[in-house]
Amino acid sequence: MSERVKWLILMLMFTCCLAKLDENLHFITKAPQEGYTWRLVTDGQGVTQLLLDKNYDIVDCNVTLGAPAKTAVRDLFREAVQSYSGAIIDQHMDDTDHDRYKRKCAKFLRDSKRIKYETTAPLYHERMRRERFRSTWPGTNWCGTGPAPPNSTLGKNNGTDSCCQQHKQCDDVVEGYQRTDYYQNMRPWRISHCDCDRQLYDCLAAVNTSVSYAVAFTYFHDFNPTCFERRRKEICTEHDDWFSCKKIEKVKVPTEKDNPTWPAFYPPHFTRPRQKTQEIVRPTQRARGF
């Protein structure tokens, strides 16, 4: 029996194992964030993604079931081979109950709502801060983490809303848990290109109202999100039949970067434009929670 036939039989056995409900595939890889590990577990019917810190405590997680999970399972072996997000640490099959991982994730999501803001886990901060901006900001149609409105109508705070509209319509983004261009977004929310975030920063500063300040403070100070820039890195773009790297190219890969932090006072380096954007409503009090 030739080596190639043996290899095909091995791959067939591997595929059959994915369909067994009593066995799970563990795919573990180093995450882009330093000190974190990304663990993906599947039983062929569902997929659980876990982001673990250096002590192997859950920092973030996600459970996918139904049709999206089956699609993820089909792509799982290809992702393991081409490991876009980092070096593979481990990949194995065992009889661990996949439901146990789902219960762990569900418990983490429940506990994260009750955890104190002073916790030392950095991504706990980010999840809780996002909950404060979950809905649309009052007086706007575009400022918030919700979906874009069906039309282009601006809210009564039209200057601030226009900034958020431009930011939400940014073309260069990576959606939550999306893998694109050799990069894996490990968060459930999208990440924008740094140019889009800088444009939002400058736009809100130019509007210069209490509403634009509150929105900017929430996004850049409370959330303090990362953005990404495309930088050239050496990536294996082609593999041979035995999955060894056959071709290495320098390609532009999204690379995370910190955004500027909005200070607690009005930025002194921003000059007010001659024709400042006027808003219909300018509340005299700061937004609740700031």
Automatic annotation (TrEMBL):
Domain of life: Eukaryota
UniProt xrefs under InterPro entries: PLA2-like_dom, PLA2_histidine, PLipase_A2_dom_sf
GO molecular function: phospholipase A2 activity
Keyword Secreted set for record: yes
Localisation per UniProt entry: Secreted
Pfam family, one: Phospholip_A2_2
Keyword flag RNA-binding: no
GO biological process: arachidonate secretion; phospholipid metabolic process
GO cellular component: extracellular region
Signal peptide coordinates: 1-19
Keywords, ordered alphabetically: Secreted, Signal
Domain named Phospholipase A2-like central: residues: 137-230
Protein name: Group 3 secretory phospholipase A2-like
Lineage: Eukaryota, Metazoa, Chordata, Cephalochordata, Leptocardii
Gene coding for it: LOC118426731
